[in-house]
TrEMBL record:
The keyword Transport applies. GO terms for molecular function: transmembrane transporter activity. This is MFS family permease. GO terms for cellular component: plasma membrane. The chain crosses the membrane at residues 18-40, 52-72, 84-102, 108-131, 143-165, 171-192, 204-225, 231-251, 280-299, 305-326, 338-357, 363-382, 403-431, 490-508. InterPro entries: MFS, MFS_dom, MFS_trans_sf.
């Protein structure tokens, strides 16, 4: 690959250590959310807050990343991809440091969710651009695979690490370790060769506003709905209109020959369009799984963080193992075919969970389907980034990486917010309906149950509920606990419908991918004309 295409100075080869450092950065990015997911109950207790509040912070972090990631990719063009990468790492370091010191949910929202989310919006596209520009040929494919494997490894050890640390030390220690890893990555910044940008340096301000309103409005609307707030329809409407206006604005600016936040010509590549769609669907599925299952395990089976992490380990470890194996053993197998099998296994594993959930007395019952789903996710992780960005020229790689990262971040935030909201809404609906139809509870007691549910029933395990109802007659206490026991598995089953639906749509898309020719080598296809 030539200097013009690769962006690497002539005669310079990127050190293999750079791939390791980039993989470490990706590791921190992914493990951060995993730590929060398995530590929900500990954070709730320590900060005296609610499950839905912590869940909202988790989804907000992904939302901020998704909303600003296209702007982040353009910032990388203007100030340099290396500088954007280091600024993004700094944002994450601030967020992790805040988690170590936070004494309230407000601090977590401001520094971890918002500042850390903005850091991710700079870090993700810059990282993919630096891989594209610092490596070529087989080294580039291996670098992408290594970063993908790091993401899978983070998903694997995140729940376990978070569980062990939260149970035996404190959930804050995990975030302190993140700060240490980021410091190591900073030490190796001299290995990075910046990737020059030769395109227009004018900023599409209106396009940036539309992108934030579009992606932010949709997920924010879901978060407000989850919290029982008002103007949900208005927020969702703003999001949908913002996305439509963003697309129209890009096409209009392109026709006039004016600079755009992202070049709509990127979407002339069928490979790129399908790649980012599949990226988003994979992340919707992952986000849905990683918010619904930890809540269920901690609030229904009453596992501590350690137990929740161990139960999720089959999903995470199989995902990591398959990501590594697929990169080494793919051989001449078509990426599109591997991706299709990924969605088949992911969806099958989730569907098998549905009848198991109401009968599961412990996490052991979930092991086999979680392994199946994890293998599917590992196949997807091993292929999607390289498949999506392979046809993109160096001049447009930052924009393309931004779109690819935006699709993933939007999918993750949507999956986290929507699956979590569906779980809590179903729980509320089922609990209230069963209470109202109960022949044991009197009307006044039914109203009391409904009022309690509005405030904090979503954090009530059966043990906590029994303590709360200690002064009630035995028959009332037993009836409410029975309703609680029956309502929660139903809520999880409905919430799992979100990742299942994403998997099914991804499977349908994969058949379209198989009909396309395999993508050319990186940089061979210029989609900027």
């Amino acid at each position: 690959m030539s200097e013009e295409v690769s962006g690497v100075p002539a005669g310079t080869r990127a050190s293999p250590r750079l791939a390791i450092l980039l993989a470490m950065a990706m590791f921190v990015l992914v493990v951060d959310t995993s730590l929060m997911n398995v530590s929900i109950s500990a954070v709730v207790e320590d900060l005296d807050t609610t499950v839905s509040g912590v869940q909202s912070a988790i989804a907000l972090e992904a939302l901020v990343s998704a909303a600003f990631i296209l702007i982040g990719s353009k910032v990388g063009d203007l100030i340099g991809r290396k500088r954007a990468y280091l600024l993004g790492l700094s944002g994450y370091a601030i967020g992790a440091s805040a988690m170590v010191l936070a004494q309230s949910l407000t601090a977590i929202i401001i520094f971890w969710a918002v500042v850390g989310g903005i850091g991710a919006s700079l870090l993700l596209p810059a990282m993919q651009s630096l891989i594209h520009g610092n490596f070529d040929g087989a080294a580039q494919t291996k670098a992408y695979a290594m970063v993908g494997a790091a993401a899978a490894l983070a998903a694997a050890v995140g729940p376990l690490l978070g569980g062990v640390i939260t149970t035996y030390l404190s959930w804050r220690v995990g975030f302190l370790l993140e700060v240490a890893v980021i410091a190591v990555v900073f030490v190796g910044r001299g290995l990075i060769h910046d990737v020059p940008y030769s395109g227009s340096r004018r900023v599409d301000v209106v396009g940036a506003i539309f992108s934030v309103l579009g992606m932010g409005g949709v997920v924010l609307g879901i978060l407000v709905w989850q919290e029982g707030g008002e103007f949900v329809g208005l927020l969702l409407g703003i999001g949908v209109v913002g996305l439509a206006a963003f697309g129209y604005w890009l096409v209009r600016r392109k026709r006039r020959g004016e600079p755009t936040l992202i070049d709509p010509a990127l979407f002339s590549s069928a490979v790129f369009k399908l790649g980012i769609s599949q990226q988003m669907l994979q992340q919707i599925a992952l986000g849905g799984i990683m918010i619904a299952l930890p809540i269920y395990l901690q609030m229904v089976l009453e596992y501590n963080a350690m137990g929740a992490g161990l139960t999720l380990a089959p999903l995470s470890l199989s995902m990591f193992g398959m990501a590594i194996l697929a990169e080494k053993k793919a051989g001449r197998r078509r990426p599109s075919s591997i991706i299709r099998w990924g969605f088949v296994l992911l969806t099958t594993g989730l569907v098998v969970l549905i009848p198991i959930v109401p009968r599961a007395g412990s996490g052991w019952a979930l092991v086999a389907p979680l392994i199946l789903a994890g293998v599917g996710l590992g196949l997807l992780v091993s292929q999607l980034n390289n498949y999506t960005l392979s046809p993109i020229s160096q001049e447009r790689v930052s924009e393309a990486a931004g779109v690819n990262s935006a699709a993933g971040s939007f999918g993750l935030s949507f999956g986290l917010a929507f699956a979590g909201a569906i779980l809590l809404a179903t729980l509320s609906f089922t609990f209230t309906n069963q209470a109202e139809s109960s022949t044991v509870l009197q009307p006044a007691q039914q109203e009391q149950v409904a009022d309690a549910l509005e405030h904090d029933a979503e954090v009530m395990s059966n043990t906590a509920l029994e303590d709360l109802l200690a002064k009630q007659p035995p028959e009332v206490r037993e009836e409410i606990v029975r309703i609680n026991t029956e309502a929660r598995p139903i809520a999880l089953q409905v919430a799992l419908g979100i990742p299942i639906l994403a998997g099914l749509v991804g499977l349908v898309n994969s058949f379209r991918m198989v009909r396309l020719k395999d993508p050319p080598s990186p940089g061979d296809l210029d989609v900027t004309d």
